[in-house]
């Protein structure tokens, strides 16, 4: 039987990274504020485990994005399909990623996609043109994680 999965990404600011990647992938930031409020009201979640971000309650140190067409839990808004979870860690990124995401733009849309992501804080590193094997930009997200746009 195939297994469900999510990619977990260490970050300095989980909420901001979730917003960047939701925009980059055209995903949805999970809104877990009803779940957080319910757990808080029941005394199961202390105030120090909660943060407010853009008017929503969230779990401190965690944020996630999900594909808008995949199934999700209606009570928690947690995605049950393609999902990225950002978790805050105390150390900064120091070396090259061993895993990265490739964003596939539509035909003729690579440059527009790169410019859209730059407007959200991404940076170009280098352009790669491998002829028939592909043509892409290596980029860095706002926290310096490598990804590619093809």
Automatic annotation (TrEMBL):
Xref: InterPro entries: Glyas_Bleomycin-R_OHBP_Dase, Glyoxalase_6
Protein species of origin: Streptomyces triticirhizae
Keyword Oxidoreductase: yes
Protein name: Glyoxalase/bleomycin resistance/dioxygenase family protein
Ranges for domain Glyoxalase-like: 7-149
Pfam families for this protein: Glyoxalase_6
This protein's record includes keyword Protein biosynthesis: no
Keywords on record: Dioxygenase, Oxidoreductase
One GO MF term: dioxygenase activity
